[in-house]
Amino acid sequence: MIHISTQDQIPFEHFEKASRDTLKYLNKKFGYGTWMMTRKHENEWVILQVEGEKYGIEELTTLVWSDSMCSRMVRGEGPRWAPDVDMVPAYVHAPIYHAETIKSYIGIPVCFADGNLFGTLCAIDKEPVDRIPPDGLETIELVSKLLSTLLQLELQNIALSRKQISFLPSQLKDNETGFLNRLGWSLYLEKEESNIRSVGTPVHVVAIDLSQSRKATHSKDAALTALFVSTLNGILHDEGYIARLGEDIYTMLCANKTEDQIAVMVERIAHELNESSIPVSVGYKKHTYGDSLDTTVIAAIKSVRQSSI
């Protein structure tokens, strides 16, 4: 039974809400012009949630990780709380120091369960502060660790949802291949858009054109289709999902891949299918934070069509 006195303590429904309320709390408690939750992926530094308008930073802005003060903080070259940035040589030499007016800085790592870096909880201001408040750093470090814990639950739920495709109703699947149809693909893209806003999931879209195989066989060979399906499923495993968007156009959404990993995957797809006498054209597009996933899908399909000309 829900009581009036307990409603304000109902758990957060997802990580994004927890992050936003945390940034608001820290801004109110400690000041600073802008508080941010960020994610690092390769050398990209994505600003996920923002509280404070002093710098005019928009959410899903992508910066260069190696230019940041946070990159130096996690290497141990500067403190997690720098009341006066000008007193820290490593931060003064960071390119972002010269691009923005940053005179005070807070940065705390946010980690995956294995200890690897997810991103940072950070704050910046255009004025130095007099001192670190008593227990201030300990409070922010504890808050950051709690957010890391909530983040793991969110990431686990996202991973689990990607494994549920085999249990989807037939209305969302292509009858011939078992892959998502246009409706199923559209629904899952909506879920991934939400994931990108919340936790900054890095995404690539791979497009495959099977028309060369159709021309070669002059038929819709069931054995060819079965081999094609099993090959793609074997390569992707549970790390994404596949859709059939046309007679011969297939798309794959691949999450959490580096540029090198996706290039190897695309090469493997083309190689294994061609080795199985299923000639295809393959292209891909990295999703740009701030764009719609539909835009990325269209760009990936255009790339594969251009390569097949």
Could you explain the architecture of this structure?
- This protein is of the alpha+beta class and 309 residues long.
- It has two domains: 4-160, Beta-Lactamase (2-Layer Sandwich); 166-307, 2-Layer Sandwich (Alpha-Beta Plaits), CATH 3.30.70.
- Helix content is 42%, strand content 20%.
- The protein has ten helices and ten strands.
- The strands form two sheets. Strands 3-2-1-6-5-4 form a six-stranded antiparallel β-sheet.
- β8 and β9 form a beta hairpin.
- It is elongated.
- The termini are far apart.
Known CATH architecture of the largest domain: 2-Layer Sandwich
Count of discrete structural domains: 2
Question: Would you tell me which CATH topology of the largest domain applies?
Answer: Beta-Lactamase
CATH superfamily of the largest domain: GAF domain
Helix content: 40-55%
Strand order of the largest sheet: 3-2-1-6-5-4
What is the count of helical runs? 10
- State the low-pLDDT regions, or none: none
Q: What is the CATH class name of the largest domain? A: Alpha Beta
Helical/strand content category = alpha+beta
Oligomeric status: single chain
